[in-house]
Every structure is written in structure tokens, then in C-alpha cells.
Amino acid sequence: MKRLFYNLKITFKNKELIFWTFAFPIILITLFYAAFSNITAADNYTAPKIVAIENENSKLLPVYKQIFEKVDALDVSFENNFDETKQKLEKEDIIGIITFEDDMSFPKLIIEKNGTSQTIVQNIMTEIELSIRSGKQFDEVKIKNTYERNQEMAMIEYFSLLAMACLYGAMIGTKSLDKSLANMTASGKRIAVSAISKAKIVLVSLVTSYITQLIGLALLFLHILFILKIDFGPELPGVIGLTAVGALAGLALGTFVSAAFRVKEDTKDGITTGFTMLCCFFSGMMGPSMKFVIDSAVPFLNKINPAALLTDGYYSLTNFGAGERFWTDVILLLVFSGVISIISVKILRRQKYDNL
Amino acid sequence: MAEKVIEVKKLTKKYKELTAVDHLSFDVEKGEILGLLGPNGSGKSTTINSILSLLTFDEGDIKIFGEEMTPDALEIKRRIGVVFQDVAVFEELTVWENVNYFCSLYISDKATCEKYTEEAIKLVGLGDFKKFLPKKLSGGLLRRLNIACGIAHKPKLIFLDEPTVAVDPQSRNNILEGIKKLRDNGATIVYTTHYMEEVEILCDRVIILDHGKIVASGTNDSLKDLAKIKEKITVETRGISKKFQDEIKKLKDVVSVKSGRDTLVVNYSDTRKNLAELVNLLEKNKIKYEKIYSERPTLNDVFLELTGKDLRD
Questions:
Q1: What distance in Å separates the CA atoms of residue B59 and residue B61, rounded to the nearest whole number?
Q2: Fewer Cβ within 10 Å of end Cβ, chain B: N or C?
Q3: φ and ψ at A184, to 5 degrees?
Q4: Which domain covers residue B289, as residue numbers?
Q5: Between chains, do B102 and A190 touch, taking CB under 8 Å as contact?
Q6: Rounded CA separation B11/B21 (Å)
């Protein structure tokens, strides 16, 4: 217990490590939230509120009124007073204002900020204009797909960020185990000649790392739930459980990097960060289309990519509940963690130093 | 016959083409301080790391306390303390916590561990710095902390690998005093250094290593007896002519005469009335000098004579 306490103290006093594993995911998720502020996992979609200003001289206003009645994706009301409506926009009571010019001029959309809802409104207005110009029947399904696809893309990026936070725990695992390896640090050399078995040293290191990681993820979730006020709905326990499994995968990855690579500490950090980012890239963090490309072209890759498994796990859980797809992701994550942990232990047990 | 704490037989360690330790054999007896002396790269640290099972080695047998030393020999390790050349402490823990942490790797009882921690801190004179973080300590104090971390669990066998490198004179004296106390408390000590003065002060027996081989071994006095030079007389003077130097060389038992800018060193192969004879010769030739003194050869002289190199090369 004493060594566990000291190990935790050593880990928590490493400011650089704490920044990258605790603060960085919180900052990044806050930025993501700012960009996709209307999207939450539980509340799939809330139609953006917009106000259309009446204009008796507009010949297109009646056409648009008919279309708006069919479009569930928008919550449109009609007002006469532009100034009062503008105040509502400034107070953020509404997302945008649509103004109609005389005769056949197409309406203009006025928005104050950039965001997902604003993008959705813009897309729908464009679709409506195109359908009127082409003289074709307005396609409601296409409109629905537009916003659902936007939502899906945002959710994948959002979930892959959670996956990144889990896998960043690899850094804690690597640093913690490195402190106990004779070829990495002077203190590791001292620990290696002590009367403690290697198994105990590794176990304490793993427990320390996992506790640290769970504390970091708990802070991230507190931030998500109480500061950003994102509601995961009834699947919250499942999301937390999947995160704990993801943390385990991150820890196993960190242990593997520490055990398998006989390189300097900085190089190990580079390997850990690089691998994590690559996994997150393939899982859709830098552009959700990548996930679809990998899913269709090399599906096996996303079955062994812990970030992709986590992203898919969150997505399937929040959209379809804890079904077969979710549990497959969980099992594959556990298999990934188990396999690389066994490899790490075997490497550590065989490890003898030719030089120090 | 004294109990053997360490038995090393034909230890050989190679790094590709380089043989760092070459068929090295030696014993360490209970209660002695053995000095491993040699220049950088002579194989001192490799020998210690091999004995501690930190390194694999190519040939040889190593026994500690009569048992074969392996990485899993935890009961043997429990009785060993190591102070490495590199300071091995955690920057994030205070002085007290560092000593307590490393002591806890050997002592499971909390109260005993805390008692030993206090005693180790007292032994190295860090009582006023218990709550300091290592980065707040001077180089000398940090070295003392390094020692405290290695010996807090009261080991019976202690390896000290160049513990006084880059240490101020005050801390050096404190460290050397601490090591003497450890020996007085019954510990067997293996001390590696390239400072011959420390070896002369501390060690009961010395092994001189070069290129991974034992060049000479024995007590300080027996090693000095190995040297051809038995007495060294230094004259602090200026402007000694070549002719006068040749005259000195004709004196009995003179091995060599070395002339520096302000000194003249005369080496003798025997200790007779050399000093008086040289003083008479200087006065007879009306040569003025500031000081003249006689010394026994140092271990450095012995090393120089045996290997042709200075210990600090």
C-alpha cells in the first residue's frame, strides 16, 4: 500500500503527464462540444428554431410555408416584426431568421454564430431552394439524411475523442513501468536490485496506472456531465463501463510499449502518442469518413484497432443499446488488452540486460 | 578462515568485440572494505552490475553469502545495499519519502521501516533536509541522499559505486565518515572509485583493475611494496641544471630524476638516509630551495608503474 501511495504521488506530480492525460482531453472535448454543441448522444436531434419574417409581396413565401409544414427538421414560426425577432436571435432564443424579398426572390438566412445547428439550417435551406429552382418535388428524406449525416459525423468524432482519452492512459502505463526498469531509469536500477519480485513491481505499477487513469477519466466525465451538460441518457452506465474497459486497453498498450521497446523514454512517448493518434485517425477523429473507408475497405483493421472498437462501442450503445454489436466491441477490446498484456509479461519475464 | 561474503570466479563480460571484464576472480571477506580501483572503463561498474545480476555475463560463477546469485535470489538481495554512481531518487518525493520508499522495498514492517529511515537520514547528516525535494539539495547533499536510500535497510553487504563523484570536500568527508560507521556496524563493503586518496583512507584491501583484469591486489602497504620506487623526494626549487640532475642520478638507489618548472622529483628504490644525502648535495652545490619533503609512493604511483597510465585518465 505504501508503494502504491508513493507511486501515485510520483505520477500525480508529473505535470507534463497530467496535462496530456487529464487536461488535454478535457480541453479537446470542450472544443469539440463548442463545434457540435447541439449534438448529444441521448437526445438525438432537436429541430433548430428559426423565424420567418412575413412579407405579403413575396410570391415564394406561400411555397416555403407549405414546405416548412412538412419539414420536421426545422422548427419554423412566422413573425411580422423584424427588430423584435433580431433581438431573439441576439439572445440566442432562435438559431436564425429568414427574410423574404418581394416577388420571386429567394429568401435570405440570417445567422449570428457558426455551429452544427446553423450548418443544418443552411443545408436544409439550400436543399429547399434547389428543389424549387429545379421544379422537382421537395425530397424530405434527403433533408432528413442531411442533418442525420451531420449528426452521425459529429458523434463519431466526439466518441473517437473519448477513445483517445482512454488510450492516452498508455502514457501513464509506459511512464510508470519505466520507473521500475533497470535499463530505463536510475531508480529502476535500484528497484531491480531490491528484494521485491518483478511480478510485484509490475503489479503495483499497473494498479497505480489504472487508478490514475480512472481518476483522469472520472474528471473528464464530470466535466462532460456537469459542465458541458451532455446527457448520455439511460446508457450512461454502459458508456462509463466501456470507458473503463477502454482505459484497460490503454494501460495494456502502455505496458507493451514500455516492455517491448528498448529505446529512450522520449522515444517511447513518441511511439505511444503516435500509435494512439494513428488509431484515433483510423477511427474517425480527424474526419469521420475515414472510419467508413476503413470499415468498407479493410474491416479487419477496425476490429483490432482499440480506438475504432471504442468509437463503435459508444456509437452502437447510444444508438441501438447494449446489443450484439456493442458486446462484440467490448469482447474484442478485452481480447486486445489480454493478448498484448500476455506478450508484455512474457517479454518482462525474459528480460535480461546486456548493457545498462 | 574468514567467511567469504562474495566469491567471483572467472567472470567474463563482453560487449561485442570489447571484453569489459576478463576472467576476473576475487573474494570479499566478511567485515572488510574492498576497494575496486581503476580508471574509467576499467570494468569496475560492469563487475558490480554482474555481481548484482543486473547484467548477463558470458562466463564465470558468482556466489554471495555462499549462494549462487540470480535475478530472483530475493533473500540474498534482502541483505544487499547498493549505492549507484548515478543518483537514483525520485524527484517527486521528499528526502524522507525517498529513503522510506527504498527502505520499504526491503522492510515490510511499517514502524521498523520508519525507524530505519530516520537512522539512515541521521547517518548521512540530512536531518535538517527531511522535507526537501531532491531538486532543492546541493550536489553533495544529493549524493548523501543517494547513499541513505541505498543503505537504510541495514544491509550486510554494501556496494558503493563511486559515491563521491562531483562532491564538495565537506560532503566527501561526511560520506567517508558514514562509510566507516557502516563498516564499524558490521557491514562488508565493496567500494569502487578512481580516487586513490579515498581508497587509502577507507579500504582494508584493494584490487586494481585495468581493461577488465586484475593488475594487482592486496593491502595498501603490500601494493606500495610492489612498486620499484620506495621513496619519493620532492624539492621545490627553480633552475636545476642538467649537469646537477646527472650528479643526482649518480647517488645510490636513485631510480629516476624528474624536473618540472618549480619542482624536482627524485625517486629511490630503497629507503635509507636519502633525504639527508640530497640536502647535503644541494647545499654543497649552493642550490637554494623553498621546501624539500619525502613521501612513500602513492597507489597512483603504483598504478602508473603497473599500467603506464594515471588513475584519473
A1: 7
A2: N
A3: -105, -45
A4: 228-296
A5: yes
A6: 7
Residues of B in contact with A185 (CB under 8 A): 88
Report the SS3 class of residue A13.
Answer: coil
Dist. CA B218–CA B216, nearest whole Å: 7
| Block residue for cell numbers 597507489 | B299
Residues of chain B with Cβ-Cβ distance to A189 below 8 Å are: 54, 84, 86, 88
Q: Regarding predicted confidence, which is higher, B260 or B8?
A: B8
Distance of CA A71 to the CA centre of its chain: 30
Residue B227 identity (one-letter amino acid): A
CATH numbers and ranges of domains, chain A: 2-35+168-350 (no CATH), 49-149 (3.40.190)
- Using the beta-carbon criterion (under 8 Å), do A353 and B74 form an inter-chain contact? no
* Residue B306 to residues A45, B214, B237, B300, Cα–Cα distance (Å): 88, 11, 29, 10
Is pTM beyond 0.90 here?
no
Helix and strand numbers (H, E) in chain A are 16, 4
Per-residue pLDDT of A133-171, as tens digits, reads 877 666 665 565 555 666 666 677 778 788 888 888 888
CA distance B113 to B133: 20
Please state the ipTM of this predicted complex: 0.78
Contact yes or no for A229/A30 (Cβ under 8 A): no
The last residue of one of the domains, among B225, B240, B269, is B225
Over range A180-199, report the average pLDDT: 84
Distance CA B257, CA B228 (A): 14
Taking the C-alpha atoms of residue B46 and residue B56, their distance in angstroms, rounded to an integer, is 10
Is A3–B105 a contact, with Cβ atoms under 8 angstroms apart? yes
Contacts of B54 in chain A (CB under 8 A): 182, 189, 192-193, 353, 356
**Averaged over B102-116, what is the pLDDT?**
93
Cβ–Cβ gap A189/B150 under 8 Å: no
**Total domains in the fold of chain B:** 2
| Single-letter amino acid, residue A167 | L
